[in-house]
Amino acid sequence: MTDAAKAQDHVLIFDTTLRDGEQSPGATMSHDEKLEIAGLLDEMGVDIIEAGFPIASEGDFAAVSDIARNSRNSVICGLARANFADIDRCWEAVKHAAKPRIHTFIGTSPLHRDITALDQEGMIEKIAATVAHARNLCDNVQWSPMDATRTEHEYLCRVVETAIKAGATTINIPDTVGYTAPRESADLIRMLLERVPGADRIVFATHCHNDLGMATANSLAAVEAGARQIECTINGLGERAGNTALEEVVMAMRVRNDIMPYQTGIDTTKIMHLSRRVSQVSGFAVQYNKAVVGKNAFLHESGIHQDGVLKNVQTFEIMRPEDIGLTSKNIAMGKHSGRAALRAKMAELGYDLGDNQLKDVFVRFKALADRKKEVYDDDLIALVADTSASGGDDHLQVRKLRVVCGTEGPQEAELTLAVGGEEKFVDATGDGPVDACFNAVKMLYPHSAKLDLYQVSAVTEGTDAQATVSVRLSRDGRVYTGQSADTDTVVASVKAYVNALNRMHAGQGRANNSALQTSAAG
Ligand code: KIV
Ligand code: ZN
């Protein structure tokens, strides 16, 4: 047991945004983006970062290895199914970390035992052998009985005991399908602590999915019963309805520390920046009324609420915006603001821009300030995301676009696109301006990718607001995402589409169905 976990009031935060979160269909992140997110998580004080599933692909292996090499304080963990090949590959990737961890798992519920064609005894043998193998490689081994909340209690106690005897140092109890409820979640941890020999020597973790909207409550209930590690993701990113949201459990334990007297090592002022970056790089927008990090989480629309907040902010606010890193001074920047002011503003928003990036963002900021009366924080954040999404050496580059639209269709797009440095022009029509533009791109750069997602959202209020557009393409079982922002929604759409195609051209996609066949023990 780690020193931190021994102190009864400390709860370890295990972030799996880069593994379980990225497994969410379409939540592709590039290698550099994964490194950036891991760096931010480390800086925020996450105890353990689950960086990926090394055997899933060369890309996953490279990402976990590089995250391990660059890690500072966090433990770096990789996932492995219950077989030697997975575990060896995982170790090869995480061993570069100052503090490595192997996380191995197998589905233990009757449904999963059926799929792996193992009977109860056969599975026990497999668990003993694989956990011992992992422990021979690494001192820090986490083991999970997948679908624990639908595993017979008697059998769950036996498998947990087996894993502890074989050397597991953390036992994670996953509610894989988001099936449990708070009281049951607590009872399960209590039962394991009471009945399993050796349970007092290891850390119990809780890993909840949000299918019934109870992931946060279930995780906190498990902690009250004795779990000392919460597995979670930024924005609750994850398959189906997602995982426990890091920002929710951390802020719940902080705001209601009177009834949940636990501490974490999280610097909560970094939450908002991470939330935005994860949303930008994954292409998963945060719902406006999402707890803690939603756009409306600190907005007071009704007259009574506004009046109350003006007189005493505590009437309707239980946390301060600055506690999660929301700058209270949303001061608009204008066209007279200089480079130093922009750098200071970006630093305040959590962005440490290098000289070259600052130069690019500044040019685009000036152009935006010319078109838009006031440039707000969210505008600047969208600009940075857009600048880092595209580069000067991209295969496809939008040079010029003119669109004719109106009540009389078909709409028309004249597009000049540089393809591998060669400028090409086309005049295309379509059912609406965006369709006409996408047709034009496809005529100049024929491809067989399918458009799986096209999503537009306004960055700020007003008709001169920027729009951010996310596009997701798939081809041959791989997905490619692109994003862009512009005051012209059609321009943002074309740039997001071209951005996704550039990623496809550069081979920066990921498997559509993650190689993680969670039920296959391999
Ligand atoms: O939800 C789950 O069961 C998992 C395991 C691989 C731990 O993510
Ligand atoms: Zn999971």
From TrEMBL:
Cofactor requirements of the protein: Mn(2+)
Region (Regulatory domain): 397-522
Keywords: Amino-acid biosynthesis, Branched-chain amino acid biosynthesis, Cytoplasm, Leucine biosynthesis, Manganese, Metal-binding, Transferase
Annotated pathway: Amino-acid biosynthesis; L-leucine biosynthesis; L-leucine from 3-methyl-2-oxobutanoate: step 1/4
The Pyruvate carboxyltransferase domain, residue ranges: 11-272
Entry GO terms, CC: cytosol
Pfam short name (any one): LeuA_dimer
Catalytic activity of the protein: 3-methyl-2-oxobutanoate + acetyl-CoA + H2O = (2S)-2-isopropylmalate + CoA + H(+)
Enzyme Commission number(s) from the entry: 2.3.3.13
Biological-process GO terms, alphabetical: L-leucine biosynthetic process
Chain residues that bind Mn(2+): D20, H207, H209, N243
InterPro entries (UniProt xref): 2-IPM_HCS-like, 2-isopropylmalate_synth_dimer, AIPM/Hcit_synth_CS, Aldolase_TIM, LeuA/HCS_post-cat, LeuA_allosteric_dom_sf, LeuA_bact_synth, PYR_CT
Molecular function terms, GO-annotated: 2-isopropylmalate synthase activity; acetyl-CoA C-acetyltransferase activity; manganese ion binding
Database matches in NCBIfam families: leuA_bact (TIGR00973), PRK00915.1-3 (NF002086), PRK00915.1-4 (NF002087)
UniProt subunit comment: Homodimer.
Role, per record: Catalyzes the condensation of the acetyl group of acetyl-CoA with 3-methyl-2-oxobutanoate (2-ketoisovalerate) to form 3-carboxy-3-hydroxy-4-methylpentanoate (2-isopropylmalate).
Similarity section: Belongs to the alpha-IPM synthase/homocitrate synthase family. LeuA type 1 subfamily.
Protein name in UniProt: 2-isopropylmalate synthase
Organism (species): Pararhodobacter aggregans
Gene, per the UniProt record: leuA
